[in-house]
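Example record

The entry below shows one chain as it appears in the dataset: sequence first, then structure tokens.
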Amino acid sequence: MRRLPCGIYNETYAQDMAVIRTKAQWALTVISLLVALALPLIIPVSSLQVVNKIGIYILSGIGLNILAGCAGQISMAHAAFMAIGAYCSAILNNAGVPFVLSILCGGFFAGGIGIIVGFPSLRIKGFYLILATMAAQFIIIHIIEHWTWMTGGMTGLSLGRPTLFGVHFGSDQAYYVVILVFLLAGTAFAQNLMRTRTGRAFIAVRDNDIAAEVMGISISRYKLLAFFLGCFYAGVGGALLAHWMGAITTTLFNINLSIWFLAYILIGGMGSSVGPFLGVPILVLLSELLTSLTSGLMMSFPWLLNVILPLHDLIYGIAIVLFLIFEPRGLAHRWEIFKISYRLWPFSY
């Protein structure tokens, strides 16, 4: 049962089941949507590029959060599934398939490959599943690089910005709207998914798959479904990234990106719907800040190049370690503590 602020009570079942439950939550939701829509008019284009990247990564991170955080199936191949969605969408769009349809096809194709990769999870778990998905990362990227006549090999593919209903989304401001629509739709689906029978089955499989099977939950069905949903989100995110950048190569989807996606949801909070919204912006903005800092230092002190170059990775790694030490349950746990204190106010008990 979810708690409500002091003095607020549910009077109907519809109120109890609602996602947005109080007037304050409605007000914050409306204000947030208005700010999100006005953001391209407020910030400069250079900053909007970072915001677009954050939006795409949050959408992909939601998929990994469903797969690893809710269903307990750790994947080290999330970047590879983004690559599948990106290349599939690019190939279809270059062949004349409409923009939105090509993105959805990229997501479904990545989800289908995710089911195949997820079959080992029916027999193995933990460290062994991590190794299996890591192998899938290298296999998928290897296939893309050597399927030259279809994917362009090491040179990759080029594609233009999309056109939808006669409107050309050539600028970062226009493409921001596309990302926002997909992000809102993906967030709404994921938020409601965890309130359904399927979402509760994911959590049961994550906590104790043997006990879940004894209760009548089909372990194989829900593990494969989790892989499909997680990889579908990754495929859509990769397709959005491909159309935003206009050209793609496999270097955009290496193993490092898969590792960073795990870091995003760990810092944000695994299994929490707000986890990707907290982890991705903080780490991406920290990376951008450190890149600007190290670039400025190299221009001012070029003779210290060997000392300055490792600073980015060093400080970035230290920041992640500190997060894991002082907030191992992620920033979402700190957000839950704040919400509990708000609901109890003005009482202390």
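Notes for this example: The domain at 45-344 is CATH 1.10.3470 (ABC transporter involved in vitamin B12 uptake, BtuC). The CA atoms of residues 267 and 284 lie 12 Å apart.
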